Amino acid sequence: LCLLKEGADPNTPISSGGSLLHLCARHDNVFAAEVLIERGLNVNQQDEDLWTALHVACVCDHADMVLLLLLAGVNVLLQDVNGNIPLDYTTEGTETSYIIRKHLEENVPGVDVSMHTMRTQRPSTMLSDVRQLVSSRGSLNLRNDDGVTLLHIACASGYREVVSVLLEHGVDPQPSDNSYWTPLHLAAKYGQTSIVSQLLKHRADPTLLNCNQDKPSGIIQ
User: How many domains would you assign to the chain?
Assistant: First the structure.
């Protein structure tokens, strides 16, 4: 904190490639984390293993830190080198697990149901599966019980190449799930700016409203 008062950059990486926020998450120093976030620290910064501070807070079961990071707009779907999202490091039945699951349920309708798919599929695996679907002329617009499509999952997860293949092969660019969330809503929600551009180029409608009456532009993190 003294260094910050002297004008130090809060985004200066530590030895592991992470940020000071990673250290705060490990030691449950919520006060220092709040100061760092107020100074503009990137809450989605990943270390050399692609862990965010939220991954750290979850594995340490620091519920207050998890709440702070969620309020700061952290991307709960970012994967580490093993393809794990923060939820994977929570223990079933703990407050941290409940908070993360509740956040997904309330803020990203439909995606929670597909969480197992997103957790176990790295970008290369999903890309291979999609290309196989294309080769076998399978449907790229299939939905699960919540109306979630492959494009929803790829956009929320930041799988740009998967999104490109889906769009190039004529997938519907603006399917709505059962809560009226489109892939464009999800890409905007999780800061996937290049994917937002891809969707707009394929004429995804930026004026569609979700169940909360939000346009994609209204939920950009």
Answer: 2
CA distances, 199 to each of 23, 152, 194 (Å):
37, 11, 9
The answer on 71 and 45 residing in a single domain is yes
Indicate if 177 and 211 belong to the same structural domain: yes
Q: Supply the CATH number for residue 14's domain.
A: 1.25.40.20
pLDDT recorded at residue 116 = 47
| Torsion over CA: 89, 36, 195, 218 (sign) | positive
Dist CA 95 CA 91 (whole Å): 9
Give buried/exposed letters for 68-104 (b at 16+ CB in 10 A, else e): bbbebebbbbbbbeebbbbbbbbeeeeebbebbeebb
Q: Is 95 helix (H, G, I), strand (E, B) or coil?
A: helix
Give me the domain span that covers residue 20. Answer: 2-107
Given a cut of 60, is residue 3 above it in pLDDT?
Answer: no
Question: DSSP letter at 91?
Answer: P
Categorize the per-residue pLDDT at 165 as very low, low, confident or very high, splitting at 50, 70 and 90. Answer: very high
pLDDT in tens, 30-89: 999 999 999 888 999 988 878 899 999 998 999 999 999 999 999 998 887 767 789 888
